[in-house]
């Protein structure tokens, strides 16, 4: 398999989506409105991780593009929980890609404590060989959810997916604490936004 050729459209899609989402953020700023997008990160899954996931899920090589839906991954990080749903609505209204699947791991958090909104999209990439439909995963989460997920991801890596039970329990407590932090911040959202508008004008 020529990985470089296979992954090229995914690299392109990640770059295009990054530009588009950053454009949305900029537009909010230009109109002096609160941006529901705090920052964006994006990556193409490393070959070793694709292979590992394929092996774990017993996906044959010729089915990788169909079955591994997060080869292209975009992460949208928001300040408040409400912002996540604003971003979701804005993405639902776009017509430059099709949404295939949406999973709300905020209303239905994972047993690990993981919270995020996932969207699997089909994005038309224009290549030198014509149009190619590429699947991409958009994860939308708050800063607190991102903090938790980043730390849990590192621990998962360290313990090769078998985090000791004691640490798992702590992570669940930390996930609740992150959830409560989001709730508390939401309650003073208007105050924070007003302060940020004043700060921005200075
Ligand atoms: P990476 O790139 O290292 O992050 P989906 O159908 O994809 O929306 P599903 O079925 O849960 O949801 O898929 P999967 O493959 O389990 O998870 C997709 C991605 O969501 C993961 O990518 C993580 O980024 C994130 N994720 C899901 N569950 C958890 C969790 O419990 N903890 C953390 N920290 N992240 C999670 P990968 O494959 O881990 O790769």
TrEMBL record:
Q: In which pathway does it act?
A: Purine metabolism; ppGpp biosynthesis; ppGpp from GTP: step 1/2
Q: Ranges for the RelA/SpoT domain?
A: 42-163
CDD domains xref list = NT_Rel-Spo_like
Cross-referenced InterPro entries, in alphabetical order? GTP_Pyrophosphokinase, NT_sf, RelA_SpoT
Q: Which domain of life is it from?
A: Bacteria
UniProt protein name:
GTP pyrophosphokinase family protein
């Amino acid at each position: 398999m020529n990985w470089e050729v296979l992954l090229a459209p995914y690299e392109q899609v990640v770059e295009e989506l990054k530009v588009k989402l950053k454009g949305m953020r900029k537009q909010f700023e230009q109109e002096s409105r609160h941006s529901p997008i705090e920052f964006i990160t994006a990556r193409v899954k490393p070959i070793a991780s694709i292979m590992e996931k394929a092996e774990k899920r017993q996906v044959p090589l010729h089915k990788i593009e169909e079955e591994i839906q997060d080869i292209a991954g975009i992460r949208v990080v928001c300040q408040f929980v409400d912002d996540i749903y604003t971003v979701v609505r804005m993405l639902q209204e776009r017509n430059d890609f099709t949404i295939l699947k949406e999973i709300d791991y905020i209303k239905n958090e994972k047993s690990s404590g993981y919270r995020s909104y996932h969207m699997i999209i089909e994005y038309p990439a224009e290549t030198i060989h014509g149009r190619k439909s590429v699947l991409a995963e958009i994860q939308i989460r708050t800063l607190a959810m991102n903090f938790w997920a980043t730390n849990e991801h590192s621990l998962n890596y360290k313990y090769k997916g078998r985090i000791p039970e004691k640490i798992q329990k702590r992570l669940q407590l930390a996930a609740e604490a992150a959830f409560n932090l989001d709730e508390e911040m939401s309650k003073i959202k208007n105050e924070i936004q007003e302060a940020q508008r004043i700060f921005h004008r200075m």
